[in-house]
Amino acid sequence: MQADFSYEAACDGAGCQLGVTILADRERIRSQMRDDAEAAGFRILECCGLDEFGSGSIGALGDLVLVDCAQADAATTALLSRLDVRCGKSGAHLVVSTVMESLDIVFGCFALSGAQILVDPGRAERIMAIGRVLAHVPNLRLRELAEDDRLLLLRLTEQVGQMAQRLESLSPGQREGGGAFRLEAATQEWKGQATTSASESAGPSLPDAATIRGFIRQRQARARFFDADLFADPAWDILLDLTAARAECQMVSVTSLCIAAGVPATTALRWVAQMVDSGLLLRIPDPADRRRAHIALADSTAVAMSRYFAEIGVTTNRRVAVAA
Prior knowledge:
The protein has helices spanning 27-39, 50-55, 74-90, 103-108, 123-134, 147-170, 209-221, 234-247, 254-261, 265-277, 299-311, and strands at residues 5-7, 19-24, 43-48, 64-69, 93-98, 116-119, 142-145, 252-253, 281-285, 293-297. The protein is an alpha/beta fold. The chain is elongated. The N and C termini lie far apart (58 Å).
């Protein structure tokens, strides 16, 4: 069944119809993506499997690149990384769907393009991702759209905007440049466990991991008695999980963080992207496997968390280590 929405041809400022490149190994998904992109007003430039596309020379990409990747072997990750660089340089929009089992590897391929990453998405989620791209096309005229779908797209755009505003106001400090998935070097920006060294910046101490994990268990216990959606707060759950990991001197994979967030993985990724973009979190390459990336608290965020725990009377003798 084709998407039940339709746009007039999506055109750029010069009036040229926008093109889309569709790469998917699963034929059913590829067919759906093609139908939905055409319904959204895009001109199909390429529609094939990843292996087929990767075996040839990568020519000009579309203004939108739709990718479905269920299995991320070495050849596929190399192709995804090349697409990330190309889209990052050209400004093309990139939407990538994958499965939870491949999320860590797929996530690690995208550091430059600000890709939308969807995890085990339904067709509606893919359509909404296209809608977010279309929201950036100036003067686009919507020809036919069911009222429910219209409201759904408006709410999604509104929620993403509110998320960015909230995180911007919470962020201890903004950093220049980069996109939502920019890559940070694992140098002085992340020091892991707090230390008692007198040379470190004096400030409120960070609780030990067991104490923080206790807070997390208390939050999770509410779901046994109430609807979990009633207390959904992915940003705070992400911060608590990363604070505990910092106290343990452990790195956290994006898959683990999505589970800790207590919301669907695609929603969790959207929060992680916004929190990285606002400077609350860092994306750190895995030193043992450059195809992967971890997420950690920025030093300024760790200090803010330590001050929060001090404010509510939960402290230890450990001090938060900050970059010199």
